[in-house]
Give the backbone structure.
Amino acid sequence: MDRRTFLAATAAAGAAANAVQAVDAPRKLRVAIIGCGRMGQYFAEVYRRLPQTELVAIAEWNDERRAVVGDRFGVTALFKDVNAMVKSVVPDMAAVITPTRFMKEAVVKCAEAGVKGISTDKPMASRLADADDMVNACKENGAIFAGGNLQRAKWEVQHAARRIHAGDFGRILGAAVHGYGGEISGGGCQHMSVLRLFTGAEVAEVMAWGSPPKALLKKDDGGLNINGRMRLSTGVDCQVFGITQKYGDQRNRSGVDVWCEKGMVSWQWAAPRIYSGLDARGRREEIDPEYPAFPWSDVLADPPLRKSDDYLVSSIQSFIKAVQLESEAELFVSGHDLRQALEITIACKQSAVLGNLPLRLPLADRSLFLDPSPYRMLGGDQTGNVQSNAEAAGKNKPSD
Ligand SMILES: NC(=O)c1ccc[n+]([C@@H]2O[C@H](COP(=O)([O-])OP(=O)(O)OC[C@H]3O[C@@H](n4cnc5c(N)ncnc54)[C@H](O)[C@@H]3O)[C@@H](O)[C@H]2O)c1
């Protein structure tokens, strides 16, 4: 074959392959954002950059912000809330990032309307029964139910967990939670989600002390500091340390340690550090964890997304995969995970209120609740922290 004939033949083959690809290319998943305030806008930024998804609708309560974000993300199907939305648009996926008080209505409504994949964020509810209703509505309607922007979804956190479960460090001997205080329903959800992931276990019993005493009298979690002990379903014990106010370097320690026969994995709001073996002085030796490179850095290349949005991207990627596979088996964060984190938190407060009484989980009384901070519960508009239209339009500089 001469060169000209060869080039013509390969061009024809290439065109045919492209045609097949065009026909076979999977349809983009149609995504709606419900609650498009500060956090919702980050979700929208990710979804609009991914090749597998397109933003088709936004439900946003605030009239001005709805118009601004519609313009910013090129979405014309704009609604006040989920009820108005599902009358005209039933997307494949819905990301619910309203303030906590409104999450249940949006999740349940989407599930009943036939949305295939629904995600929400932390804390998903304040009352246990509401969290149950959300999980059950998704289950009964066959919807994938994902969690949101949690460190549990961080690429390196997932890989460290896989190594623990593959037995790289031997049997798990113990665990510890550090810095469990200040906002145990909001931020503390991160600790509990990583603890359950690393240990591959549920919390079966808690015994907790809470301080200061006045924080135990409040309906919300503001300022409540917890020290205690959790017994895991595998029989392993986990010590829980609140925020240490006095002791220098320890003050800012916050995270989860899991130690095993041959090593320790320590998550402190970043890629987990791994220790295996001892150095010449008999101290634990940190090893290079050799995490595989984060596969989606291109999504974070341009502002307003920041490097620290890596776990938002991996959480969403795992959610998309779960919807495509119609299986929650490999979700990085599920609605169940959010519910368990809430339940552990409520159990800790209840145990402390009852005088450090050991409490078994699941809790029998599903009417128990713990409100998150007013901002998380009701959103910025109702708590004096209104997002400006300029910021909603994406005109402010990212913070890192
Ligand atoms: N996982 C994380 O790292 C993380 C970070 C920030 C916030 N959050 C959670 O996300 C939630 C929202 O926080 P935010 O900072 O975006 O708050 P925000 O006040 O900036 O935004 C909330 C938006 O939801 C809208 N909204 C309220 N009720 C609605 C309804 N019924 N239907 C549709 N839209 C509605 C509001 O108008 C507002 O625009 C909170 O629960 C918070 O705890 C999680």
Observations:
- Residues 34-40, 59-62, 65, 81, 97-100, 102, 121-122, 148-150, 186, 376, 379-381, 387 surround nicotinamide-adenine-dinucleotide (CB under 6 Å).
- The first helix runs from residue 3 to 24.
- Residues 152-288+335-364 form a domain with the Dihydrodipicolinate Reductase; domain 2 fold (CATH 3.30.360.10).
- Residues 1-22 have pLDDT under 50 and may be disordered.
